[in-house]
C-alpha cells in the first residue's frame, strides 16, 4: 500500500472495495480506458467496480463522474462509450454531460472526451439543481492533456478543476483505476480524503514521483479562463 497524509492507494484489484466503508464516498471517478473490442472480457469487471460495489460505497448524495473517450479503428469510430453507458444507465441517473477538449486530432482517438455526471437512481437532484451548486458551470473543459503523457492523461489543472467542481474540503474521493494517482494526489493536497486502487504494484515509484512533484509546488488559485 502507498500511504501519505489524506491518501491511501491499494495495489490490488478494485472489484470488491473491501477497504472502503459503505455510503462513504462523495466522488467516485471512473474511466473507459480499458474498454476495447474484448468488451466481454471486461464487462464483469466494470459491472463490479462501477455498479455493484460503487453503489454500495457511494453516498446517497455522491457523484459518480466517468470519463469516456471513443477511439478510431481501421478508419471508423469505435464507440466504447456506448458499451459503458449501456451498463450504467439502468443503474444510475445521468444528470449532466461535459466535453473535455484535450488534444489535437490524432490517428488513435478522438481529440475530445466526455465526462458523464451520474448520481444514484433514487437521488432527487436534477441537472438544474446540480448546476446551481457546481462551482464552474461550463459545457467544455479546455485543458490540454498532460504533456508527454498518454492520450488520456489528466494535467494538474484538470485535476484541480474536477476536485473543486465536485468536492469540498474534507470530502472523500475514490479512483478504482488510479494509475499514477495524479487526481488523488491533488485531492489529498487540497484537503480531501483520497483512496485509490492500482493493480500494478510497479506503479508505486511513479506515484511517489507525482506525490513529490505536486507537493513541492506552491498551491496557486485555479485559472478558469
Task: Summarize, please.
With 225 residues, this protein is an alpha/beta fold.
Please describe what this structure looks like.
The chain is of the alpha/beta class. 30% of the residues lie in helices and 28% in strands. It has six helices and eleven strands. The protein has helices at residues 39-57, 80-88, 127-133, 156-166, 182-189, 204-216; strands at residues 2-4, 7-10, 25-31, 58-68, 71-73, 76-78, 92-101, 112-120, 140-142, 172-175, 193-197. The strands form two sheets. A nine-stranded mixed β-sheet has the order 1-2-11-10-3-4-8-7-9, sandwiched between helices. It has a two-stranded antiparallel sheet with strand order 5-6. A hairpin with a 2-residue loop joins β1 and β2 (7-10). α1 (39-57) packs across α2 and α4 (156-166) packs across α5. The protein is globular, with a radius of gyration of 17 Å.
Q: Which terms would index this structure?
A:
single chain; 225 residues; alpha/beta; Rossmann fold; 9-stranded mixed β-sheet; two-stranded antiparallel sheet; globular
Beta-strand fraction estimate:
25-35%
- What's the N-to-C terminus distance? 38 Å
Q: CATH first level: which class?
A: Alpha Beta
Following the backbone from N to C, one meets helices and strands in this order, namely EEEHEEEHEEHEHEHEH
The total domain count is 1
Sequence stretches where pLDDT stays below 50 over 5 or more residues: none
How confident is the prediction overall: mean pLDDT? 87
Query: Could you say which structural class the secondary elements and strand pairing correspond to?
Result: alpha/beta
Radius of gyration: 17 Å
Q: Can you name the CATH architecture?
A: 3-Layer(aba) Sandwich
What is the count of helical runs?
6
By DSSP, the count of extended strands is: 11
Helical content, roughly? 25-40%
Amino acid at each position: 500500500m502507498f500511504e501519505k497524509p489524506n491518501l491511501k492507494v491499494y495495489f490490488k484489484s478494485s472489484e470488491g472495495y473491501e477497504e472502503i466503508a459503505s455510503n462513504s464516498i462523495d466522488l467516485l471517478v471512473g474511466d473507459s480506458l480499458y474498454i476495447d473490442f474484448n468488451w466481454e472480457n471486461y464487462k464483469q469487471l466494470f459491472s463490479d467496480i462501477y455498479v455493484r460495489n460503487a453503489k454500495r460505497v457511494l453516498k446517497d448524495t455522491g457523484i459518480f463522474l466517468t470519463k469516456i473517450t471513443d477511439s478510431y479503428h481501421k478508419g471508423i469510430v469505435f464507440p466504447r462509450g456506448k458499451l459503458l453507458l449501456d451498463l450504467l444507465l439502468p443503474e444510475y441517473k445521468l444528470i449532466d454531460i461535459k466535453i473535455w477538449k484535450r488534444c489535437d486530432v490524432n490517428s488513435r482517438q478522438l481529440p475530445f472526451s466526455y465526462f458523464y455526471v451520474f448520481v444514484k437512481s433514487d437521488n432527487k437532484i436534477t441537472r438544474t439543481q446540480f448546476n446551481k451548486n457546481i462551482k464552474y458551470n461550463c459545457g467544455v473543459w479546455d485543458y490540454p492533456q498532460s504533456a508527454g503523457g498518454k492520450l488520456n492523461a489528466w494535467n494538474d489543472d484538470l485535476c484541480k478543476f474536477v476536485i473543486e467542481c465536485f468536492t469540498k474540503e474534507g470530502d472523500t474521493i475514490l479512483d478504482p483505476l488510479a494509475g499514477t494517482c495524479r487526481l488523488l494526489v491533488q485531492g489529498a493536497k487540497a484537503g480531501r480524503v483520497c483512496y485509490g486502487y492500482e493493480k500494478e504494484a510497479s506503479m508505486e515509484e511513479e506515484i511517489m514521483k507525482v506525490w513529490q512533484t505536486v507537493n513541492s509546488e506552491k498551491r496557486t488559485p485555479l485559472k478558469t479562463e
